[in-house]
Design a protein that fits this description.
Elements: E1 2-4, H1 10-21, H2 40-52, H3 56-63, E2 68-73, E3 76-83, E4 91-96, H4 107-114, E5 127-132, H5 150-163, E6 169-173, H6 176-187, E7 192-197, H7 216-232, H8 234-241, H9 243-252, H10 254-267, H11 281-294, H12 297-306, E8 329-333, H13 343-349, E9 353-358, H14 366-369, H15 371-385
Parallel strand pairs: 4-5, 4-6, 6-7, 7-8, 8-9
Antiparallel strand pairs: 1-2, 2-3, 3-5
Helix pairs in contact: 1-2, 4-15, 5-6, 8-12, 9-10, 9-12, 10-11
Length: 387
């Protein structure tokens, strides 16, 4: 388990600058906004900001303030952040990001989680925080081997927490972090004391009679799920079927990588006109830059291929459950997520739900968008686990 620092060669940054400056821009249908993808005008301005104003070196220094490490598990290098709390009775907590995600999403929650006393909170709510990068993503990538599906990642997390000496811990996640955290609860029930999720996908039951009595809000959420399937799931289907073909364009064009990521920050957040209505521009660009500098667009997409049942044409089937956990589960529902869950259906696939919070704002990237709500909900859930 080796200390790690981000030290990007200047030649890589100079290459990024040249590629951005020499971008070959496409035409677009006028006056369609975001309906057909990221608008050229918006992306041109953002790419120029990335090239001329975004300060990677400042961001690099900020990220290197975090205690980062790497270790080899199951033949691949795992990068992780490990911040211990000054409180001796802190609860170990493993936070797992999703796609297109990074440990950068959690910058604003690390302090309040690990040192609540210094942030106006109760020291009894302190956590030792572990934030690994999923194999194939960022500094945990590329893996260089097939087979890294959700189950294998969860087994790696189990090993990581054991190496860190944590005999009891809480797992938290959204997006792929949802599946990884649930799987971790299934394979390590002796040590996982609870699973907290800021995303849960609930599909309607096959019997139409079970749809009776849905509230207007639940009906709206079914509409969001349908819209996701019809309008927003193209990225999922191509990454689950032809990740290698996609990788060439994203690995060769920084603007292609930029568009592929920022579209999701527009569609899945509590934004209005642009993603920056919901998330910080420099942090968003830091995530894109890490994908670019580590050339992990393709390897991160492989997780979709590896975790999809090749015999099921519905690439989202894995998300449906059921999840027969033996420990309590908590769900934080953010209304502007891609497809917020319906509780009636959630309790069928995740029967150990003991905590459910409905928020009035926020979306898919909860720790990034609404760090205060995110921290508060984890604290509340974990309090319920203590005797």
């Amino acid at each position: 388990m080796q200390p790690f620092r981000i030290e990007i060669p200047q030649a890589a940054l100079d290459d990024l600058d040249r590629r951005l400056e020499n971008t070959r821009w496409p035409e677009e249908v006028p006056d369609v906004g975001w309906a057909r993808g990221v608008p050229v005008g918006y992306l041109q301005e953002l790419a120029e900001y990335w090239r001329t104003e975004f300060d990677w070196r400042a961001m690099e220094r900020r990220l290197n303030e975090l205690p980062q490490f790497t270790t080899e598990i199951d033949g691949t290098t795992i990068h992780y952040v490990h911040v211990t709390s000054p409180e001796p009775d802190a609860t170990p907590l493993i936070l797992t990001h999703g796609w297109p995600g990074s440990f950068v999403e959690f910058l604003d929650v690390i302090g309040p989680l690990t040192d609540p006393r210094a942030h106006g909170g109760d020291p009894a709510d302190a956590f030792h925080v572990v934030i690994p990068s999923i194999p194939g993503f960022g500094f945990s990538g590329p893996t260089g081997a097939a087979g890294w599906d959700v189950d294998r990642v969860a087994r790696a997390w189990k090993e990581l927490m054991a190496r860190l000496g944590y005999s009891s811990y809480v797992a938290q996640g959204g997006d792929w972090g949802l599946l990884i955290s649930l799987e971790l609860g299934l394979i390590d029930p002796e040590h996982v004391k609870g699973v907290h999720l800021n995303m849960l996908v609930t599909f309607p039951p096959p019997d139409p009679a079970e749809m009776a009595g849905l509230t207007p809000r639940d009906q709206q959420r079914l509409g969001q799920l349908m819209n996701f399937d019809l309008e927003q799931s193209g990225y999922m289907k191509i990454q689950a079927t032809r990740p290698q073909t996609l990788a060439y364009g994203l690995t060769d064009s920084p603007v292609g990588q930029l568009a592929w990521v920022v579209e999701k920050y527009k569609e899945w957040t509590d934004s209005h006109l642009v993603p920056e209505d919901a998330v910080d521009r420099d942090r968003m660009l830091a995530i894109v830059t890490i994908f670019w500098l580590t050339a992990t667009a393709g390897s991160s997409a492989q997780l979709y291929y590896e975790s999809t049942d090749r015999t099921d044409p519905n690439v989202a089937a894995r998300w449906a459950g059921p999840w027969p956990l033996t420990m309590p589960a908590g769900v934080a529902v953010f209304p502007h997520d891609a497809a917020p869950p319906i509780r009636r259906f959630a309790e069928r696939v995740l029967p150990t739900i003991t905590h459910w919070t409905e928020f009035e704002r926020g979306g898919h990237f909860a720790a990034f968008e609404e760090p205060d709500l995110f921290v508060s909900d984890i604290r509340t859930f974990v309090r319920s686990l203590k005797p």
